Amino acid sequence: MKQLVMANQSVDTEEVPDPTPKDDWVVVKIIASPICGSDRHVFYAKTPSRGGHEGSGEVVAVDKPERLRVGDRVSLGPLAACKKCEFCNAGDYIHCLNQPPVGTHFAEYTLAQEFVTPTIPDDLDLDVASLAGCALGPSLGALTRMATGPGHTILITGLGPVGLGAVTVAKFRGARVIAVEPGPWRRRRAQELGADTVIDPTEVDPLKTIIDLTEGLGPHHAIDCTGKTPAERLCIDVVRRRGKVAFVGENPDDIPLGPSRDMIRKGIDLIGGWHFNLGLYPEMFRLLRESPVVDKLISHRFGFDQAQEAFDTFFSGQAAKVLIKPWETEA
Ligand SMILES: [Zn+2]
Ligand SMILES: [Zn+2]
Fold first, then answer.
1. How is residue 295 annotated by DSSP?
2. Which residues surround ligand 1, an ion (CB under 5 A)?
3. pTM for this prediction
4. Residue 250 confidence (pLDDT) above 60
5. Which of 59, 108, 203, 263 could form an SS bridge with 72, CB 3.0 to 4.6 Å?
6. Which residues on adjacent β-strands are paired with residue 244?
7. How far apart, in Å, do the first and last CA atoms of the chain sit?
């Protein structure tokens, strides 16, 4: 089979043996695999690397699964689980202590572990269903933990694919959305997804503007999708007293935090949200089915023969989710 390999911003295909099913790991023919912001590490790597950790597809070969059958349409996630540790037992597989490795999803086929591979309902398009990965997963998990809903105003910092996904989830849950993003393409797409106010932080002081938009109190909740310290601090500074702040953008740096000022006196909750657990899949499928705008999270689709263009487009900042379609060739 073919899969993508990349290094130094150059993308190629390579030929590798087809995977074979083993025990509860089934072979999935990948129909759509979105590029993730975290594939940046792979695209810019100095040595040949393989990314891709989301997607949708069809089961084509099985060994001894209990539930999945050949022909099932399935959702592919970034993680697998040991199914034995206390976190797996609690249904919290994303924090599993012994996660088995998962192969690249920028491939014609991949192996998927049955336990973490839900079946996609028949009425959902497989391209749209591929958004159940990092497009919508991190924000669905975080907004569920914050119980964001009608009557809440939420600040979303950063409108890359995860931030645009957060706009989609927050609007679906009935919240008012204020978003901050310097890129005009992304601001426009957020408005198409229903964001109530979008702010260019290079034009106005975001903190003052958001305070003015919220009767001097600040938003109830904030979610950072930038992974950048200034935006994370903005979330903490602007959220109202007793508010909640979720971090979903990966930030390898430390940020300044005043336990007394930020948490004890202001009373805010700070949470980290990585992904979502299997128990949220029914809500994810409901969102994918009922959101009137969710398909706008897909801005481009490319086959393997256009993979270079796919990655160049994605990292140009003028894109939402870019889908890699291994089986499609340029018309
Ligand atoms: Zn991802
Ligand atoms: Zn585990």
1. G
2. 36, 38, 134
3. 0.96
4. yes
5. 59
6. 221, 269
7. 21
Instruction: Give the mean pLDDT of 284-296.
Output: 97
Q: Residues near 203 by Cβ (< 8 Å), separated by ≥ 6?
A: none
Structural domain range at position 13: 2-134+295-325
30 and 115 both lie in a single domain: yes
Confidence category of residue 264, pLDDT binned at 50, 70, 90: very high
Q: Going by C-beta distance under 8 Å and a sequence separation of 6 or more, which residues neighbour residue 144?
A: 276, 280, 283
Separation of 138 CA from ligand 2 center, angstroms?
A: 19
Ligand nearest to the backbone CA of 86: 2
Query: What residues are neighbours of ligand 2 (ion), with CB under 5 Å?
Result: 81-82, 85, 88, 96
Per-residue pLDDT tens digits for 233-248 = 999 999 999 999 999 9
> What is the tens place of the pLDDT at every residue in 108-147?
999 999 999 999 999 999 999 999 999 999 999 999 999 9
Q: Are residues 228 and 143 in the same domain?
A: yes
* For the CA of 38, the nearest ligand: 1
Q: How far away, in angstroms, is 239 Cα from ligand 1 center? A: 27
Residues 96, 24, single domain; the answer is yes
Claim to verify: residue 65 and residue 156 sit in the same structural domain: no
| Domain count for the chain | 2
How, if at all, do strands 25-34 and 55-61 pair?
A: antiparallel
Answer whether residue 223 shows pLDDT above 80. Answer: yes
Residue 283 falls within a domain, yes or no? no
- Asked if 193 and 249 sit in the same domain, the reply is yes
